[in-house]
Write a structure and sequence with these properties.
heterodimer, A: 110 residues, mainly beta, 4-stranded antiparallel sheet, 0% helix, B: mainly beta, 6-stranded mixed sheet, globular
Chain lengths: 110, 110
């Protein structure tokens, strides 16, 4: 039981490049989330999904897209990366009301 | 919009002293409140979850209280140890979404 895993762990992008972050969970959770964490600001919700095939916007969705084609996977896409998207990205999933978090992806956009 | 505040932002105590971490929130219509621990460069580890109907939750040296009417929660860590040094995050659940505070960074001096 791996819990919530994230790929990749680190990435450096140039402005304008695109990439996809992968989140996978093996706990059969319905709800999945993408957050970003910036210094001094806590975690902010980007997008979330309440089940396979569904997605919804969170607090800071601009510049990101998501897809949930399979229940166990939640993908976060950056179509044209900007320096303001330099951050640590966390994925989480829900069992009942308690959220379980992945180890994070550290993204730098130069 | 739920606003979560954690005070103080940083705390330094000698080993053995009890720790008191505060969290306040603006919307009392919550489902639950979670306390997390985050070590530098790492993900989030769930410490305690308090359901909205509960007043407190305990795990070992950790005790968390919840006062929904006043929008406050307090995390107590008894007899602190250097291994307790970390950032502690408070998160409040409205519906299935979490709102995070910016965290309290704790240093326990040996």
């Amino acid at each position: 039981n791996a819990g919530v895993t994230q790929t990749p762990k680190f990435r450096v992008l140039k402005t304008g490049q695109s990439m996809t972050l992968l989140c996978a969970q093996d706990m059969n959770h319905e709800y999945m989330y993408w957050y970003r964490q910036d210094p001094g600001m806590g975690l902010r919700l980007i997008h979330y999904s309440v089940g396979e095939g569904t997605t919804a916007k969170g607090e800071v969705p601009d510049g990101y897209n998501v897809s949930r084609l399979k229940k166990q996977n939640f993908l976060l896409g950056l179509e044209s990366a900007a320096p303001s998207q330099t951050s640590v990205y966390f994925c989480a999933s829900n069992r009942g009301r308690e959220q379980y978090f992945g180890p994070g992806t550290r993204l730098t956009v130069t | 919009k739920q606003e979560v505040t954690q005070i103080p932002a940083a705390l330094s105590v000698p080993e053995g002293e009890n720790l008191v971490l505060n969290c306040s929130f603006t919307d009392s219509a919550i489902y639950n409140l979670q306390w997390f621990r985050q070590d530098p460069g790492k993900g989030l580890t769930s410490l305690l979850l308090i359901q909205s109907s509960q007043r407190e939750q305990t795990s070992g040296r950790l005790n968390a209280s919840l006062d929904k009417s006043s929008g406050r929660s307090t995390l107590y860590i008894a007899a602190s140890q250097p291994g307790d040094s970390a950032t502690y995050l408070c998160a409040v659940a409205n519906d299935y979404k979490l709102s995070f505070g910016a965290g309290t960074t704790v240093t326990v001096r040996a």
